[in-house]
Amino acid sequence: MEDAKKLEAFQAKIDADIKIEPKDWMPEKYRQTLIRQISQHAHSEVIGMQPEGNWLTRAPSLRSKKILMAKIQDEAGHGLYLYCAAETLGVKREQFLEWLHEGKAKYSSVFNYPTLTWADIGAIGWLVDGAAIVNQVSLQGTSYGPYSRAMVKICMEESFHQRQGYEIMVTLANGTDEQKEMAQDALNRWWWPSIMMFGPHDADSAHSNQSLKWKIKRESNDELRQKFIDKTVEQGLHIGLTFPDPDLKWNEEKGHYDFGAIDWDEFWNVVKGYGAGNKKRLAHHKEAHEVGSWVREAAIAYANKKNNIQKSA
Ligand code: BYC
Description:
Layout: H1 2-15, H2 28-47, H3 49-53, H4 62-87, H5 93-101, H6 118-139, H7 145-173, H8 177-196, H9 208-213, H10 221-238, E1 249-251, E2 256-258, H11 264-274, H12 278-291, H13 293-312
Antiparallel strand pairs: 1-2
The structure holds benzoyl coenzyme A.
């Protein structure tokens, strides 16, 4: 009875668009859903540094190298904001990393694809960050306060990321025939994985109904995917590139682009760990975590020492 009343009051708060804060009462399933989604989001930011890091030493100019370095550093920062937001739900950072290393926690499927040429760095910024922005702008309105505030900060940086990617694509598309071909090839390989980032169709999405009711998600997977496609296709056509989808056509009546069938077998294969890069990405993360343990120990020792000095002063 008590819980039924609490649940009713909780839903009334959500319906009135009042943010839920860490110390507020919340249903256990709400807490678990947030722990899962926010920590997976954080893992995506951190693992997402790897495909781009692959090109840092081979960036074609000092300018592009500096920009890429700044972008990758931003992604680490996004991971940290998100781990902090997830920790407010009562789980320690070490636990999140353990779940990632054990394969219990997911990260975005898109980061398991390889970056074969410099044009892939353009395609990631333009398409992957572009898709992430559409999703994250929507998540700014999520009902959990710390997640919503992290999204506001992250979105400001993401728009710079999307532009650095599009700038690379514009430069290559206006370059030599070979450069234009590189840009086209990268678009061909990254288009479908970017569309898959939004997750399964609404009818097959296990969590969407409840997450929409609790306003953890503000728009469905298919609504966000459609928004991304509508705005991105125009940008690609504008620079003379084509999309690897013969069914992609503007539908005047609907006011949206129609698009072809998504290869869900490929999506689930990658999500389950059998994509081209899954093993490598996870092994690299584990190794960096182990090799970096002295940094964490030194930071903790320094913080403890500072605390002791302050206490005795
Ligand atoms: N990849 O019921 P559904 C970035 C899973 S990083 C893998 O629709 P939900 C960047 C899903 O987890 C930004 N798994 O789930 C960084 C669930 O499985 P579990 C990344 C996926 O949670 C560096 C199952 O499928 N953005 O921008 O309601 C460089 C059923 O799905 C995926 C985020 O992380 C996927 N793509 O909705 C460059 C956004 N899709 O957990 C760029 C935050 C679905 O039950 N997350 N699954 O085992 C979300 O918005 C939501 O979690 C999703 C899925 C829309 C992704």
